[in-house]
Design goal:
This protein is α/β, with parallel strands linked by helices. The chain has a single domain, classed as Rossmann fold (3-Layer(aba) Sandwich). The chain is 38% helix and 25% strand. The protein has 7 helices and 8 strands; from the N terminus they run E-H-H-E-H-E-E-E-H-E-H-E-H-E-H. The longest helix has 13 residues.
Length: 165
């Protein structure tokens, strides 16, 4: 029997990339999108990401894999490092989708404690599935842990999700 659950994933792209990179492996985004669909019944996977024109081929690939990209204009700090803070955009999109009753449950892919209020709100509304943390337990925000939401540490799924050429 086919599962008709309609879950949405909200992915902090910078947090995901940084977390996996810090763990010393490379994420296979195509495999990751399939895994989200098969394991968590994710029908829509929003990937919030800074827009840097030289990465247009990456963006095209991500869209082909099934991610819905939500771009944020980037600014550069004094050292020339790109910064595209997508936190508010992610929160607004998830609350908008909740308000419009677009999903059964939400998943958050991030280790950032700034999202703890969102997780708490969605738990209260009985519309939250779990957090997928790209950082290990020691680096996942205590604020997210305090929500008592289910947390899956992506490093535990490394063999399923790593890129291998």
């Amino acid at each position: 029997m086919e599962n008709k659950e309609n879950n949405f994933a909200y992915i902090d792209g910078a947090n995901l990339h940084r977390g996996i990179t810090d763990l010393g492996w490379k994420l296979d985004y195509k495999r990751f999108r399939v895994w989200l669909s098969e394991k968590y019944n994710v029908k829509t996977a929003y990937l919030f990401i800074g827009m840097i024109p030289r990465y247009k081929n990456l963006y095209q690939s991500l869209q082909e894999y099934g991610f819905t990209l939500v771009f944020k204009e980037v600014i550069y700090d004094g050292d020339g490092k790109a910064k595209g803070n997508c936190d508010a955009d992610l929160v607004l999109q998830s609350v908008r989708d909740l308000y419009e009753n677009k999903f059964d449950n939400a998943l958050l892919i991030s280790s950032d404690g700034d999202y703890s209020c969102l997780v708490s709100f969605l738990l209260e509304k009985k519309k939250f599935h779990s957090i997928l943390s790209p950082h290990p337990s020691a680096k996942c925000s205590i604020l997210l842990k305090r929500t008592n939401a289910k947390i899956v540490y992506m490093n535990d799924k490394k063999e399923q999700l790593k890129y291998s050429a």
